[in-house]
Design a protein that fits this description.
CATH superfamily of the largest domain: Pleckstrin-homology domain (PH domain)/Phosphotyrosine-binding domain (PTB)
Strand content: 35-45%
Number of helices: 1
Structural class: mainly beta
Order of helices and strands: EEEEEEEEEEEH
Radius of gyration: 15 Å
Shape: globular
Helix content: under 10%
Strand order of the largest sheet: 8-7-6-5-11-10-9
CATH topology of the largest domain: PH-domain like
Distance between the termini: 31 Å
Length: 146
């Protein structure tokens, strides 16, 4: 499945425009409509020298109540979308805009395993994730928010 590079919404097969934000879907090989599971180092004017996750995705679990929902975090220019796998009990997308992030913190899963991340948003919500390489993801989110 492909996702919009602007808003992170799922795209219909063969779509020319995103039905959520209206962004034109690039066409042709390597045009960037679909995200991948790798990310490239960033070198930008913001001073951030870490991994640039825009247009990329990382595997993650998102805690919705007591369920750790499996899926992917999909990064775009405006924010990050958690897209769940279809075989979870709870399915669907959760969208977090960079401008809405108050802070991002490390968390230990079950108080032991150092692989968790918590995103606190301006609307008072707390989003808890388990993911690989959390330090790089946290640094990237911090460079895009606040």
């Amino acid at each position: 499945m492909s996702f919009c590079t602007n808003c992170g919404s799922p795209l219909e097969s063969g779509a020319k425009f995103c039905t959520k934000c209206g962004t034109r879907v690039p066409t042709g090989a390597g045009a960037g409509a679909a995200v991948t599971d790798t990310a490239a180092p960033a070198t930008g004017s913001s001073g951030y020298q870490g991994t640039d996750y825009v247009g990329q995705s990382v595997k993650a679990n998102y805690f919705r109540g007591i369920e750790g929902v499996g899926g992917k975090l999909i990064f775009d220019a405006m924010g990050v979308t958690f897209h769940s796998h279809a075989f979870n009990i709870q399915v669907g997308d959760t969208r977090i805009l960079y401008k809405d992030i108050l802070r991002v913190e490390k968390k230990r899963t079950m108080g032991l395993v150092p692989n968790g991340m918590v995103i606190f948003t301006r609307d008072g919500k707390t989003h808890q994730f388990v993911l690989w390489n959390r330090e790089a993801v946290i640094a990237f989110l911090q460079s895009r928010s606040y």
